[in-house]
C-alpha cells in the first residue's frame, strides 16, 4: 500500500485507496495477459503436434494402399491414384468431422450462475470490513 494510516483526511484516504486499486487492476491485467500468452503458446504446440501426426498417418495410409495396389499387380499410375484417392478421402472426412465438432461446441462460461458472483462470500465480507 502506498498510504499510511496517520491523521489523513477522508478524501485523501479515498484517493489513496483508488490509486492502490488502479495499481492492483493493472497488475492483474498484466498477469492475465501473460497467462493467456503462455496458454496460447501451449495450444499452438499441441496443434502443431497433432497436425504433424495426422500428416504422417495420412501419408502412411497412402503408401500402404499404393503398395497393396502394386502387390496386386496394378500399374504405378493406378497405385498413385489409389493412394491419393484414399488420402483425399481421409482428409475430407477429418475436415467434415472437425467442422461438425466446432459447430456443436458451445461457448465456455467461467461461472454457471452469474448472480452468484455479485453476492460477496463470508471471506469477502470479512475483508471488506
Give an overview of the whole structure.
By secondary structure, the protein is mainly alpha-helical. The protein has a domain at 14-100. 76% of the residues lie in helices and 0% in strands. The protein has 3 helices and no strands. α1 runs antiparallel to α2 (76-104). The longest helix has 62 residues, at 10-71. It starts with 9 loop residues before the first helix and ends with a helix. The relative contact order is 0.05.
Give descriptors for this structure.
129 residues; mainly alpha; 3 helices; 0% strand
Helix content: over 70%
Beta-strand portion reads under 5%
Biggest sheet layout: none
**DSSP E strands, number:** 0
Ends distance: 17 Å
Shape: rod-shaped
Q: What's the total helix number?
A: 3
Q: Which runs of at least 5 residues are low in confidence (pLDDT < 50)?
A: none
- Cα radius of gyration in angstroms: 30 Å
Structural class designation: mainly alpha
- Helix and strand string, N-terminal first? HHH
Mean pLDDT across every amino acid position:
82
Secondary-structure map:
Elements: H1 10-71, H2 76-104, H3 122-128
Helix pairs in contact: 1-2
Produce a short descriptive summary.
This protein is an all-alpha fold and about 130 residues long. The chain has a domain at about 15-100.
Amino acid at each position: 500500500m502506498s498510504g499510511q494510516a496517520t491523521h489523513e483526511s477522508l478524501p485523501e484516504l479515498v484517493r489513496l485507496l483508488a490509486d492502490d486499486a488502479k495499481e492492483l487492476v493493472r497488475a492483474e491485467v498484466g498477469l492475465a495477459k501473460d497467462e493467456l500468452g503462455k496458454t496460447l503458446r501451449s495450444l499452438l504446440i499441441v496443434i502443431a503436434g497433432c497436425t504433424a501426426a495426422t500428416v504422417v498417418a495420412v501419408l502412411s495410409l497412402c503408401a500402404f494402399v499404393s503398395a497393396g495396389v502394386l502387390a496386386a499387380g496394378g500399374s504405378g499410375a493406378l497405385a498413385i491414384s489409389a493412394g491419393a484417392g484414399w488420402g483425399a478421402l481421409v482428409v475430407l472426412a477429418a475436415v467434415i468431422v472437425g467442422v461438425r465438432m466446432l459447430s456443436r461446441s458451445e461457448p465456455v462460461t467461467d461461472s454457471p450462475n452469474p448472480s452468484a458472483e455479485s453476492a460477496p462470500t463470508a471471506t469477502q465480507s470479512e475483508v471488506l470490513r
